[in-house]
Structures are given as structure tokens and as C-alpha cells.
Amino acid sequence: MAQGRQKPNILITGTPGTGKTTTCSLLSDATQLRHINIGELVKEKNLHDGWDDEFDCHIINEDLVCDELEEMMEVGGNIVDYHGCDFFPERWFDCVVVLQTDNSVLYDRLSSRGYMGTKLSNNIECEIFQVLLEEAKSSYPEEIVMPLRSDCVDDISGNVTTLVDWIKNWRPIS
């Protein structure tokens, strides 16, 4: 996994609204690892196959995204921020964090972002059924998957501290 890398790669995933971008930004500030927001990268570099009107988002081209990230991920020192995880190569990540949020908190967060109808209900159901946790466990070795609560500012702060400690203790495979 980490052969040749001097810094780890971390994937922070979770249902939209669980605090991925906030957590990644704070963690990047604390560690100087590069924060890669996949949604922003897709927009910036046109790594998509058009627009999905029903879900009000780009249809990402997973192959283009992986091609764009390959060299950065080989070097290491990245925090990848995305709500999915099953299309990234397993070898890229040393830790896969799945942020989880109480459904009532998540509902309020998503509603305040303007999520409605199918987009809102699908994301709430995804969280209820722990779809992203199961996806992470089936895509990566279970020992690198770390579920973390993300209901409030204190949770986010604690998660950043936990991850900073994890990074300090990380050692590359020789």
C-alpha cells in the first residue's frame, strides 16, 4: 500500500452533509497534507460526463478522476474528500474515514443546503442503511476503515485530533 510514500493518503467519505469538507480542511491545516475535494476537481478539470438533473450534480467520470489523481496519490500526503469510495484503487489509501451523522441532524443540514425530494430522501436513506460504511468495508481492508461520529463541532474537532494522532504514528511500509 504505502510502499515508497513518505506521507500517508487518507480518504474521508460519508453521506453529503456529514462534515467531510470541514474535517478535511481542518486536518489539512493541522498536518499540511493536500486536501483534494473531488467535487471541486471534477468541476475545475471537467472530469464529468454531463449533468444529472434529478440529483442536481455532475455525473463524474471515474476513470478521468483516477487518471488525474494517479501521480499525486503515488507520491502521498493527500486527504481525499468524496462521498463515494468504491472506484478508487485500494492501493491508494492508508486510512479510510467514514463520517456518520445522526439522521435528524443530517436532515437539517441537507435541508438548509436546499436538498429536496429524491436527493434529500436518498441521502437520508443512505445514512440510515450505512451504505458508505458498507461500501468502504467491502472496498478496503477492514483494518484501515475508521467510522467516526460527526454530529457537532466537538465531534469534528475530536475527529481531527484523532486523525492528526493517526498521521503522527503512521509509518510507510518498507
UniProtKB/TrEMBL annotation:
Q: Which terms under GO biological process does the entry name?
A: ribosomal small subunit biogenesis; rRNA processing
Q: What InterPro entries does the annotation carry?
A: Adenyl_kinase_AK6, P-loop_NTPase
List its EC numbers. 2.7.4.3
Positions annotated to bind ATP? 17, 19-22, 113
Q: Could you give the subunit structure recorded for this chain?
A: Interacts with small ribosomal subunit protein uS11. Not a structural component of 43S pre-ribosomes, but transiently interacts with them by binding to uS11.
**Which PANTHER family does the annotation name?**
ADENYLATE KINASE ISOENZYME 6, POS9-ACTIVATING FACTOR FAP7-RELATED
**What is the designated name of this protein?**
Adenylate kinase isoenzyme 6 homolog
